[in-house]
Amino acid sequence: MEKEQWSSKIGFILAAAGSAIGIGAIWKLPYVTGVSGGGAFFLMFILFSLFIGLPLLLAEFVIGRSTGKEAIRAYIEIAPKSKWYLIGILGVVTSFVLLSFYSVVGGWISLYFVKGLAGGVIEEGADYGGLFGQTISSAWSVLAAQAAFLLVTIVVVAKGVQSGIEKASKILMPALFVLFIILIIRSLTLDHALDGVKFFLAPDFSSITSESILFAMGQSFFSLSVGVSVMVTYSSYLPKKGSIVQPALSVVGMNLFIALLAGLAIFPAVFSLGFEPAEGPGLLFVVLPAVFEKMVFGELFLLLFLVLFLFATLTSAFSMLEIVVATLAKGNQKKRAKFAWIAGGLIFLLGIPSALSFGTMAEATIFGKNIFDTADFLVSNILMPLGVFLISIFVPLKIKKEVLRQELLQHSKGGSLLFNLWYNVMRFIIPVVIIIVFLDSLGFI
After folding, report:
1. 332 SS3 class
2. Nearest CA to 306 among 147, 149, 190?
3. pLDDT in tens, 97-121
4. Does a structural domain hold residue 59?
5. CA–CA separation, 294 vs 309, rounded Å?
6. Cα 442 vs. chain centroid, distance in angstroms?
7. How far is residue 302's CA from residue 31's CA, in Å, rounded to a whole number?
8. Does residue 19 form part of some domain?
């Protein structure tokens, strides 16, 4: 049975970076930066991404590339006759739940794009908060948009690693960069744009709190798609020869670069046009339309931003569905398409309550949260931190040190110093860090 592989290193890097670059980098990080004081928070995010996120990414690459198997089977091969395979099951379940409500947001973006094409978003003096509320409360619209978003995701994943995910990523990721550059140029040419650049890039440590430090720490590994074994599955398609350090550095670097571009596209425009950067989650759907309204050709630039955001959301969705499909297909490529449609259909059904959480099912709550927010809390605050913690324990405990050294140093510069640094960070620092972030996310700190 022929095993699928990435056709090139750049194809893998673009797909892995696409998995990482999504709602977290383009939507969540800018608004969290806005409410957490700007430049100081962004600097902490960079440091944590390099010293926490990168080692964890390398750990998942080691698991996947060394075994050549997707989540669940990779853990079984490394630690047979044990319960460690539950990490893989946890990753599959987490991705399944995550995509069920992530696709809802993908649907919202799609709806805004369609409205934008029809000239129905930007209007002088419009109530953008009311428009957003009206959009996400329309049951049939949000369900149709969620289904359309998942349909595109299913079609791409069903085509396979090379013909589907890699080919789509090679188109979408460069397009994403080009769109960002266009938006940044426009944003930086506005009056008083420099105020936004200073807010975003000039650290003001007086605004830093213990809460924002912990949030930057958590965001560093959430934004890299680590903890759900997605990167285990993606790296299982890598050839046995070649460095994994360089691709990991490339993925982290691209993720940070996109976060930088997102800030440079958003904050100069927000400051220039007199809006507050601390607008929270409404930044994309409420504040940015108001910002673009005041620009020449604002409707066009809003459409460009929505296309960019949709591209990034899709590349992340590919990886979430891929881990589920790869687990079900177990390397049998003839069954890939069938399982893509089955898994995609089940994810849509699971996501219906989340899609209706702001309309028909708004009164349905769990511990005071609607179903959408409950699913988000379950994934972001419980399942992902738990997955990261277990992987950080598993790698140094269950994989032989010689195997780790060979995988990490193959065609890589840095030798023993690089390996010892990574190994000790994985063993002694990351588990403690994750416990702190986990307790904070649950409100115990």
Report:
1. coil
2. 149
3. 999 999 999 999 999 999 988 888 8
4. yes
5. 21
6. 21
7. 17
8. yes
| pLDDT on residue 279 | 58
317, 102 Cβ separation under 8 angstroms: yes
Cα distance between residue 124 and residue 70, in whole Å: 51
Candidates 424, 426, 374, 312; CA nearest to 23 is: 312
Place of tokens 């005041």: 294
**Three-state secondary structure call for residue 37:** coil
Separation of alpha carbons 314 and 150, rounded Å: 9
CB atoms within 10 A of CB 93: 16
The 10 Å Cβ neighbour count of residue 140 is 9
> What is the CB neighbour count within 10 angstroms for residue 9?
15
The verdict on residue 3 lying in a domain is no
Q: What long-range pairs does 184-191 form, CB within 8 A, spacing at least 24?
A: 184/261, 184/264, 184/265, 186/269, 186/295, 186/301, 187/264, 187/265, 187/266, 187/268, 187/269, 187/272, 188/264, 188/268, 190/268, 190/269, 190/272, 190/273, 190/295, 191/272
Q: Out of 38-47, 207-216, 403-412, give the one with best mean pLDDT.
A: 38-47
Structure tokens at 259: 């976060």
Angstrom distance (rounded) from CA 221 to CA 212: 15
Q: Which amino acid is at 324?
A: V
Buried b vs exposed e over 286-302: b needs ≥16 C-beta within 10 Å?
bbbbbbbbebeebbebb
- Cα angle 401, 402, 408 (rounded to 5 degrees) comes to 85
Q: What pTM did the predictor assign?
A: 0.89
Q: Distance (Å, rounded) from C-alpha 339 to C-alpha 96?
A: 13
Q: Phi then psi for 4, rounded to 5 degrees?
A: -70, 145
Query: What pLDDT was estimated at residue 438?
Result: 77
Residue 334: burial class (beta carbons within 10 Å; 0-12, 13-18, 19+): exposed
- Summarised one tens digit per residue, pLDDT across range 124-139 is 778 888 888 999 999 9
Residue 127 lies in a domain: yes
3-state secondary structure of 339: helix
- The mean pLDDT of 194-201, rounded to a whole number, is 89
pLDDT at 1: 46
The position carrying tokens 């958003």 is 266
Q: For residue 292, what is the domain's CATH number?
A: 1.20.1740
Q: Residue 297: left if φ>0, alpha if ψ -120 to 50, beta else—which one?
A: left
User: Domain count of the chain?
Assistant: 1
3-class SS of residue 31: helix
- Give the percent of the chain with pLDDT over 70: 94
